[in-house]
Each structure stands twice: as structure tokens, then as C-alpha cells.
Design brief:
The chain is α/β, with parallel strands linked by helices. It is about 45% helix and about 10% strand. A five-stranded parallel beta sheet has the order 1-5-4-2-3. The longest helix is centred in the N-terminal third of the chain and has 28 residues, at about 1-30. About 30% of the residues are buried.
Length: about 170
Amino acid sequence: MGEAIRRTFFEAVIILIVAVSVALITNAFRPDRLKIFGTDCIKQFGVCGKALSQSETIDLEKAVALFYNKAAIFIDSRTPIAYAMGHIPGAVNIPNGGTNPEYEDMISGFSRDSFIVVYDDGVGGSAAYEVASILKEKGFSKVLLFSGGFSQWRNSGLPVDAGSNSSKGFLN
């Protein structure tokens, strides 16, 4: 009986090692791979030192009010392909954590006092947290995270645009 338990435990450990190895290798080849080592992992999930607090997260109702009152710049943090397939009208596409030098030019035209609403798909993604955290680090004080994201916006029947990148937000 003891030998059977040891063998089962050994097989479970081998299966676990193989599963973790396959997951790490698969992640390494994904273009949008998860950052699982170092401080980026913490930043990715919005818990780094300058991450957004719950008070800076807005719901659909507040996002709609800001949209219709043209009171905020909307930033879509999804991939350019997802953005081209549909986005909130007037939204600026700043994917990849906003680290591309091209995005520096885009945000340089934004007022540091403007309300900025950052969104992603809204289904457990971390792209919006990344972009919002970077904007806060760059001195933007009114960065809001739309937690429902584009999925909730579209599913609510709100206006959607499709096409290439917009270089201006509503306030510009």
C-alpha cells in the first residue's frame, strides 16, 4: 500500500512539472505574454506602488456620462487589431503598456489636468492597469479605469467606431 502511494505522488509531481513547463514555454511564445517574473508581474495586476486604487475605477454609467459630455480623453489599451475591429468613438489606441515612443508623442498633447479614461476588454485583462499606471507615473492626475471595458460598452448598445488609430481624444 505504501509503495502505491509513493508511486502516485511521484507521478503527480511529474505531471505538475510537465504542465508548468508547457505553460511557461507557451507563454514565452505568445505575443501578449504574461509577465510572471520580476516587478512587472506586480505592476501587471495593478498592485505596484503607483497603481490605481478602487476610488479611481469607474463603472459604465460614469464612463457614458464622461463620453456624452465630452469630458474625458478615452484611451483604448487593447491591441491595434482589436481597436480596429471596434472601439469607443474618439478613443486613442495606446497598447503594449504605452511604452512605444510613438505613444509619448500622442500623450504629450494631453493636458495633465484632463480626465483620462483607460479601458481594455474588461474581461480580466491587465492592459488598462498598465497604461493607467504609466500615465499616472508621467504626471497625469485624473486617470480613471473603466472596469467594464469595451465588452460592456459594446454589449450595452453604446456607439462603436471601427477603423484605424485615432490620434485625438475628445478633449483635443
